[in-house]
């Protein structure tokens, strides 16, 4: 057996140059469907959001689109296909990913393993934060908060040493636990990763989309999960499957920014994605159009299903800009204190 805390076990399982899950040639799409893979309507909604960001920024000379955790470039390719020529002429798209540049990606895309600095535009992270490695802790029978260790070959878990002062302080602030058996997932590395990414925006909008929770709704027993070949499996950190954990979105939010927490259902509906069925009269006047609209309605329903993809959390943060037009009316915008 090889016992590790969860953070180094995730790091090795997902990103090891020799056998990490995200280094594999098939990419994430070979194992699970994100919103990007579910429907082109998702990319269309992100393209609309980018156009609204562009307008709010006064149509800068160079407009950045930063896809953080770009996979194999599926979202970038979809968004670029939806943009008008006059915007494409000013656009600088970035794919931020540790894997090699995928074949067939438009030549205008800059492929990098680090978020760019000093850019103006839209930073979009779809299901990225849940793969940033982090440790977990559990309260033992004596009330001591200890790190959880995992066997990298079997996924079996045990309690290790007491947690550091820094992790104890993070838990006290964001995810208090006291009763034996209660689990906390220490989000400090994710908070830092998001802060670094957002700091690269000179002006613009930063959006993180992920499985998430906020204070008062923390899961009591942890959220580590695994995915392989389209199925959820045990989260064994051996490189054979994706290993994820849900995100404390309120802790992640970069301070001193105008911010919104909402659901994917509400965000996508505001951006024009609907699961409503087309009018039946269209079936008579334009049968082919009716079938296309019906298919699109099904895709929209999947993207906005509150029990599925629509239940994802959206953290939206504005950096030296006003809110984009479609999202501005959504309730919940607030300025976070430092």
Keywords:
338 residues; alpha/beta; 8-stranded mixed sheet; 5-stranded antiparallel sheet; 11 helices; 30% helix
Can you tell me about this structure?
The chain is α/β, with parallel strands linked by helices and 338 residues long. It is 30% helix and 25% strand. The chain has helices at residues 6-15, 35-38, 40-56, 74-82, 85-88, 165-174, 188-199, 249-252, 264-270, 281-285, 287-304; strands spanning 3-5, 63-68, 91-96, 110-112, 119-126, 136-139, 145-151, 157-162, 183-185, 201-210, 212-213, 225-228, 231-233, 242-244, 247-248, 258-263, 313-319, 334-335. The chain has an 8-stranded mixed β-sheet with strand order 4-3-2-5-10-17-16-18. A hairpin with a 5-residue loop joins strand 6 and strand 7. The mean pLDDT is 90.
Oligomer: single chain
Radius of gyration: 21 Å
Q: Could you tell me how far the N terminus lies from the C terminus, measured between alpha carbons in angstroms?
A: 44 Å
Q: DSSP helix count?
A: 11
The major beta sheet can be summarized as: 8 strands, mixed
* SSE string, helices as H and strands as E: EHHHEHHEEEEEEHEHEEEEEEHEHHHEE
Beta-strand content bin: 25-35%
- Based on secondary structure, the structural category is alpha/beta
Strand order of the largest sheet: 4-3-2-5-10-17-16-18
Helix content: 25-40%
Morphology call: globular
Low-confidence stretches: none
């Amino acid at each position: 057996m090889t016992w590790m805390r969860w953070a180094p076990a995730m790091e090795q399982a997902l990103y090891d140059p020799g056998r990490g899950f995200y280094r594999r040639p098939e990419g994430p799409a070979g194992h699970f469907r994100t919103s990007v893979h579910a429907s082109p309507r998702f990319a269309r909604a992100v393209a609309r959001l980018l156009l609204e960001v562009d307008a709010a920024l006064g149509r800068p000379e160079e407009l950045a689109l930063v896809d953080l955790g770009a996979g194999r470039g599926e979202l970038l390719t979809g968004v670029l296909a939806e943009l008008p020529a006059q915007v494409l002429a000013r656009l600088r798209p970035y794919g931020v990913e540790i894997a090699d540049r995928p074949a067939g990606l438009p030549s205008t895309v800059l492929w990098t393993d680090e978020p760019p600095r000093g850019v103006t535009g839209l930073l979009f992270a779809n299901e990225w934060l849940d793969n940033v490695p982090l440790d977990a802790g559990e309260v033992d029978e004596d009330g001591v908060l200890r790190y959880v260790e995992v066997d990298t070959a079997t996924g079996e878990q045990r309690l290790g040493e007491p947690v550091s002062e820094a992790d104890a302080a993070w838990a006290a602030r964001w995810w208090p636990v006291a009763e034996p058996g209660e689990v906390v997932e220490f989000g400090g590395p994710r908070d830092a990763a998001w802060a670094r990414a957002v700091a690269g925006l000179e002006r613009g909008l930063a959006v993180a989309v992920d499985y998430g929770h906020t204070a008062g709704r923390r899961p009591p027993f942890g959220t580590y999960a695994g995915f392989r070949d389209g199925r959820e499996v045990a989260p064994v950190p051996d490189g054979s499957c994706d290993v994820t954990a849900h995100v404390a979105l309120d802790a992640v939010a970069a301070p001193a920014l105008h911010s919104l927490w909402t659901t994917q259902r509400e965000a996508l509906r505001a951006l024009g994605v609907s699961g409503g069925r087309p009018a039946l009269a269209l079936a008579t006047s334009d049968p082919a159009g009716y079938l296309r609209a019906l298919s699109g309605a099904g895709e929209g329903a999947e993207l906005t299903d509150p029990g599925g993809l629509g239940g994802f959390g959206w953290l939206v943060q504005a950096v030296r800009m006003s809110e984009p037009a479609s999202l501005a009316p959504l309730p919940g915008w607030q300025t976070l204190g430092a």
